[in-house]
Amino acid sequence: MRRIRALFMRILTQFGHDRRTLALLFVAPVIVLWLLTVILDGTAASVHVAAVDLPDALSAQLEKTDAHIETVDGERAGELIADGDVAAVLSMDGGALRVELEGTDAGKSQQVMAAVNEAMAGLRETYQNDVEAARRKAGSDAEASMERLRRSMASQPADPHMVEQLERIMASSQPETKSMAVSGVDVVHLHGGEDWKVFDYYGPVFIGIFLFVFTFITSGMSLVTERTGGTMTRFLTTPINGVQILAGYAGAFGALSLVQSSVILWISVSFIGFPCVGVVWLVVLTCMLLAMASVSLGLLVSALSKTPFQVVQMMLLFVVPQILLCGLFDLSGSPSWMQALGRCMPLTYGVDVLRDVMLRGEGWGGVWPDLLTLFAFLTVFFALGAVGFRKKRARVRQR
Amino acid sequence: MLDDISLTVDAGEILCLLGPSGGGKTTLVDAIMGVRIPQRGTIEVFGERAPYAHVRRRIGFMPQETALYEDISAQDNLRFFGELFGMRGKELRSRVDELLELTDLQESRRKLVRDYSGGMKRRLSLAVALVQRPDLLVLDEPTVGLDPEQRVFIWRHLRALAAQGATILLTTHVMDEAQRCERIAMIRNGRVIADDSPERICERTRTGTLEEAFLALERHRADAMEHEEVRHA
Fold first, then answer.
1. Would the pTM count as exceeding 0.80?
2. In what order do the strands lie in the sheet with A88-93?
3. Which of B35, B68, B88 sits opposite A2 (nearest CB)?
């Protein structure tokens, strides 16, 4: 225990003297998170569309959407779309609206179509309202003339048969009052709210990814540096054993991630404006478990690399797939084997818990199975790392 | 790498492993330190086989590289290794002070090791090797790249330690460095080609310096091998 503590203190002291890494751990994630919020929110509002000779009613509806509409002539519109300055050109083709998409950016195309659909829906609604009003007016006009007729007939005796016939004619000319099957949309949010931005869904994922990547690099590198600098040999000539070395490392990096995740969370929730519905300690605990799983993976993998450069290469192999499959991208449409592969990676579980807690406000009861899985990953990596260490100690070092 | 080496070192003795680079000195040292396990054969220190479960505490090691943590201070390095050897509290503090005094690093004890000069790092590396008061001290090329003053400094300390009863095993590839030892084991291609005092080696090979002796032994061995081959043919 004393040896683990000595190692723990030494690693933290080393970090204390290394300002660059500290900056990397705290400042870099915050800056990147902030940049991402700005970028992701920016794209949501500003799709540019050129409009050529559109009916006034449609133009008015388009103005109400998020799209930025520029009214130009046909020639100018051609130039704009060719230069990529607008995502689409809207024009009239006979009675129909013609939407010419630039088409390289599928996201922008979707935004254009969303705006067009919204405008068309608006147009339809006003049209229906107009029709309704006209019918109601026609109905009340007919009612009035019927009333007049009845009154004039009451003043002079008339054939009752004729009155009945008149009533029948009136009834058939009554406007139909049947309306559309669905007349409007009421939006209710189970989680979140209308003011939530695109980035809010990805925020927890990025926090998880940052912790995972940074701890992987720093822990993997410090062990490799120890090996190349010869301190590992000296280390191994002391009574410390592999398990103690790993425990010291995991402990120190776990503590570091505790501070790191607290700082990142605090800044992103109170300054960048991340939503955090759930309890904070659960988020921090998840971050710590995630970071410790990353340390043990980093230490395990660093046994395969001889230089810090190779650690980065190993990261491409061991971490990048995790980033792709962890939930950053929606995998529900991808093949089931790929989803299963994602379920074999610690980052997926960490990100799931972060989303559940930060966005859906889940408590301990809802997330403990995922946290337990994360802990199992940590244990397995740790055990493998310890076995690897024992082998490394015994194997003849290649010159 | 190593082939049929049999050496026994007694307490209070300074044994120098002398040989060209790539001759197997570091391999032998790593095997002695239990960092590397030999495929065949055994190594025993204080009656226990490598890798040691109990006597590790009694063996001090100064590797060829400076092998210090550059981003912490000198005293933190000493403290860290002291704690790994199970030292603590007052005992550790006074030992750290003592070693910093001994290696003349008292004034820059709080400096980060990365700001140290090569000679200072070497001295600190020696101090780290001594932190747990080892009975056996193994040094891999302890004086390589040092100026004469530093070299004399290290040698003076090694002699003093031997006089106190410590066993010292060091490697070098510099011939006149080995001259200072009372016993030399010459290593060439993983074999011990001579194991004696410098004077007796020179005497036997009828040469004036260890360098000439080394070359003479080498020639002798080559001749013998050729002879062997002729006989087989």
1. no
2. A68-71, A48-51, A88-93, A96-101
3. B88
